[in-house]
Automatic annotation (TrEMBL), chains A, B:
Gene Ontology MF terms: DNA binding; DNA-binding transcription factor activity
UniProt xrefs under SUPFAM superfamilies: Winged helix' DNA-binding domain (SSF46785)
Protein's UniProt name: Metalloregulator ArsR/SmtB family transcription factor
Domain HTH arsR-type: from-to ranges: 1-92
Keywords assigned by UniProt, alphabetized: DNA-binding, Transcription, Transcription regulation
The keyword Phosphoprotein is assigned to this record: no
Length: 108, 108
DNA sequence: ATATCATATAATTATATGCTTATATACTTT
DNA sequence: AAAGTATATAAGCATATAATTATATGATAT
């Protein structure tokens, strides 16, 4: 697959409101699935499926700790994704767009 | 629509191989529809529909001159789109990915 | 006016996408 | 081992998307 096709595939992943929101939340810290469920208006399997796509394209890291699964950004080697996220709100700004507070203690 | 939703909508436009290729071709000069048809493996109505989407989101300018319609980038005010395209090939590199030469004199 | 060329729109179709509910897997605690 | 909690997978459905073909619009030239 050529350079353009590969970039298009990644950009398509960013081109979904829910996924882009997740990536914005991940800008400042890792999040576990239960926290994302708390904050986004979508079911747990919905979150899970989005994370699988992001993971399969190498955009997030997965880390199982105890019964929880934490996701974090993995975009050091993906400059144009970094560039996009640089122009997007971080955790706090995204939460306020969602009219949500930092999720409580669902995982610890 | 909030900031994230709006960005997602624009990124979705970039997340299609054909459209992203068109934007890469437009990096260095304007192109008319007939040239794009020459170079991309897609029908003329296909091109037309992609250009309409790009135009309706303000990503390209349209300029009718004679019987031809020329499109050019309009991304000065869209920094993250600029950033993405900065990492993508320009006209020449894109043509070589497509195994095509500069289109001949279809419009003049 | 008519013919020709360039582009746009409409209608259709096949496929992809995002979501939901139901169920399975994995880990932890008792 | 059994129950409880967190996450993942599967199946199904509704909508969106990108392509095609057919047709309409618009501009130019004879």
């Amino acid at each position: 697959m050529d350079e353009i096709a590969e970039a298009a595939e990644k950009l398509k992943l960013l081109g979904d409101k829910t996924r882009l929101t997740i990536l914005c939340l991940l800008k400042d810290r890792e999040w576990c699935v239960c926290e994302l469920v708390d904050v986004l208006s979508i079911s747990q399997p919905g979150i899970s499926q989005h994370m699988r796509k992001l993971k399969s394209h190498g955009i997030v890291n997965e880390s199982r700790r105890g019964q929880w699964v934490y996701y974090s950004l993995r975009i050091q080697d993906k400059p144009y994704i970094q560039a996009v996220l640089d122009y997007m709100p971080g955790t706090a700004g995204t939460l306020s767009l969602l009219n949500k507070k930092e999720p409580g203690q669902c995982c610890n």
